[in-house]
Design goal:
By secondary structure, this protein is α/β, with parallel strands linked by helices. It has eight helices and nine strands. Strand 2, helix 2 and strand 3 form a beta-alpha-beta unit.
């Protein structure tokens, strides 16, 4: 495949209503990109839908996992799959329609301009969030603020899940040592990249609340993130 080839990794668990439109939007936005759906044995049939999409499009692939095991581990599995197949640019995005496929070229352009990783950022000029209640905005802003303080990070949206990486960036990290299972995975990956001197840039995006399915956010996920960030802040060796 031509270099730098691009793949978009999309983890799924019970996303049967949104997966088809998301994959179609991605393929329309970046026609030469491949898509990898990483399904955690969704009981609603999302995995079977992904197989049907792959059967009709040679640039769509499916990685089936045995059970729901956390967002972070799904991404690590997807990243590993992509690296083993020599993809040069690897993107992560949600399956629920919150991330706009039309903004994919902006993330990829940041890599083309020299960034090792690009984060789609809601909390910067040009970025926005649609249809979120106030408490969701406060949780997200507070979480990023606390993580920035503890990790001494300049990044403005450490919890964003819309990101593009060069192969070099992901290969700089021992993915087997990444600990975050839930949304803290996003914070940990950004911190690890910064620790290794990777150039991480931010691109403003428009985040839209999902129209179908249920959010995976929970109190346990929030507590996992706060615990990891606190420990990493006081013990930077966690990022070695």
């Amino acid at each position: 495949m031509a270099s730098p080839s691009t793949i978009i990794v999309i983890p799924t668990y019970n996303e049967i209503d949104s997966l088809g439109p998301v994959v179609a939007a991605v393929r329309a936005a970046v026609s030469d990109a491949h898509v990898l759906v990483v399904d955690d044995n969704s009981p609603d049939g999302t995995g079977a839908l992904a197989d049907r999409l792959a059967a009709g499009d040679e640039q769509v692939h499916v990685l089936h996992r045995l059970a729901k095991d956390g967002l972070g581990r799904a991404y690590v599995a997807g990243f590993t799959w992509a690296l083993e197949r020599d993809f040069g640019r690897i993107v992560e995005m949600d399956a629920d329609g919150s991330h706009q496929a039309s903004e994919l070229p902006l993330l990829l352009a940041a890599l083309d301009a020299g960034a090792d990783a690009a984060i789609g950022t809601r909390w910067m000029p040009g970025g926005s969030v649609h249809d979120w209640p106030l408490h969701r905005r406060l949780i997200s802003r507070a979480g990023t603020g606390y993580a920035r303080l503890m990790l001494r990070s300049r990044l403005r949206d450490l919890t964003s899940g819309y990101r593009a990486f060069t192969r070099r960036a992901l290969e700089s990290i021992d993915l087997d040592r990444v600990q975050g299972a839930g949304y803290v995975f996003q914070i940990e990956m950004a911190a690890r990249l910064s620790k290794r001197g990777m150039r991480v840039t931010e691109v403003p995006i428009t985040f839209v609340e999902r129209r179908a399915g249920a959010s995976k956010m929970s109190t346990a996920i929030v507590l996992e993130a706060m615990t990891w960030v606190t420990k990493a802040g006081f013990s930077p060796r966690k990022l070695s």
